[in-house]
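Ticket #4471: structure export looks truncated?
Reporter: QA, pipeline team
Priority: medium

Steps to reproduce: submit the single chain below to the structure queue and open the exported record.
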Amino acid sequence: MMADLHHTPTALCCCRKSMPVSGARCVGDSSWPSAAPGPGSPRCPLVDVASASNFRCFQLQHFHLDLRLNFAVKEMSGWLVLDLVPVQSGVHTLVLDSHPSLLIQSIDCKVPGGQEEPASLTYRVDPFTDYGSSLNISLPTAAVKPGRLIQITVRYTTTDGPAIWWLDSELTCGQSRPLVFTQGHSVCNRSFFPCFDTPAVKSTYTATVRVPDGVTVLMSASRSSYSKEDRVFQFSMEFPVPSYLVALVAGDLQHVDIGPRSRVWAEPCLLSCAVKKLGGSVEHWLGVAEELFGPYLWGRCDIVFLPPSFPIVAMENPCLTFIIASILESSEFLLIDVIHEIAHGWFGNAVTNATWEEMWLSEGLATYAQRRITTEAYGEAFTCLETAVRLDALHRQLRLLGDNNPVSKLHVKFESGVNPSTLMNLFTYEKGFCFVSYLSQLCRDVRRFDCFLRDYISQFKFRSVVAQDLIDFFLTYFPELKDAAVAQREGLEFERWLSGCGPPLCEPDLSAGGSLIQPVQDLCDLWRTSEPPDLQTLLTFDLSAWSTFQIVLFLDRMLDYSPLPHAVMVSLSDCYSSLFDGLNAEVQIRWLQMVVRNSFYPDLPRVRAFLHKHTSRMYTVPLYEDLVAGVMKCVAVEIFYQTQRRLHPNLRRTLQQILFQTSTPATNQNGPALPNSPSTSPPSSTQDVNVSA
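Actual output as written to the record:
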């Protein structure tokens, strides 16, 4: 997943007492229970505080969705069938994660192959957290026996929950037909269908989706078919996945094959641009990844580009990556985003963090894998430059939050009620990356570490793991390192890496990127003076020949130096603003943040033009927050009223909160309050994190 890290939500993460919970089967366990699993048996977390379900009492073998999409009333209706095997005796209740936006109509139970008619079940919906509820289903005692399969059918209708985003035609790229998509990460899919909404549980699934004429449906599934006569799409995911990776998009979508196992999907008006940008690169990147980490396990590697209302940058839904179309402006950011999501095919999707408290097991490892791929494909210097941009952002966030803030831990313990989505921050990605890089350095051979990761995937594929599983496997794989007690090396203890606050204990050597990074710093040093540098000196720096990441690094570091003297801003604008006008939005937004933070009124028309053009969260929220924080709030209000009809309702509410300092929780369209949903504005303490991928 590539979150919008211009603004990374943070949360107060409180330690919790361990809760005694009876044992249950973990995904992939060969035996149950296991008091002390070895390096080949994943450890199951005692509890997932983000799930109300009693997932430890059952083995979920498979589930099926049968849905009808109604664009006129923005509603999905149908049923869910769960194939469950109780693993304990005396279990009389099934508890699923749900959401107030799900309207439950009926629930029944049957034993496959039995003679009895399905039994109608009683149920109760209880409050759980701001982001969900618990669906408590009373099970028939006679039918429920350990080891015997039962089928639970839940008939329901969705309204406007946090997982489901209905777009009117005006909010799509083509502005001709409406579109709907789902976004399940981290705990949103409980508003899509009742489920064990925890990454500790994986299963296969199938789906039947009925739609109006002219609508194409895609899902994160390995196989699909379509009956034109019935307007019915059929999907099958033959590999086990956690609930958050079940995704759907439906609208006016077309495709072009760009490789033997990949195609690009988009609205017709975007398709040729997307194909031109990606070309045959996806197959090349897949091939590099397979050389490093072993076979790609998912069959298809398709990509769908979504309108600017998509709330994050990209999402690694298996077989079908979702990416915001806005990123097509920047070829380098697009490259990084797609490669990162490809890396998730191994790290995050095949082997998944069993609890959201250790999200770095997905994002940190995927970031490391992404950089191994870019190093092999584009060289070490390019990778070091991109890493420098991100590590700069990490340290910027640390300065804002403080070294002792608990969100800077890799293993973050949090209380029930804290939305795991609020833990999507740069520490998850970059501090996790630094720890994995440190493990690689301990091996003294990056190729040997590649082999370790390949065997790690082979050992744990389609399972969910905790950090100790990775560490145990690492120390077993490299017995000489275990004998040398590297896990207890003073100042670099593994436990300190995982549970300590603050910056990474060490960072990778980026000197191989010096030829790209040093000119950026040299130019920054020229501009840091109280007077503008002389023109002759500046002519030695040709920014038109620089890469996007070099210019982004330059502007990010100049933002760190703001406020700047007015004369310096005048000179910067004279030298670069026309150049930046012709570059992509990743460059433009950083320059415009400098304009706003330095109250540089001559370039204010550029801010207006940018916010009239761009309607995605990643390019609007940062500028609005800067406008409000400075002396230009009236400008922000004026632009908002001029553009609000072209903004998604969620983003519109977020900007209203920023502009008018309202405390009303954001809602997903007309649904219940969702104070921790992606639609809410993050706290101002992170507004200076200038990185979006």
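Status: closed, not a bug. The export was complete when the record was re-opened. Leaving a note from the reviewer for reference: The chain has 19 helices and 22 strands.
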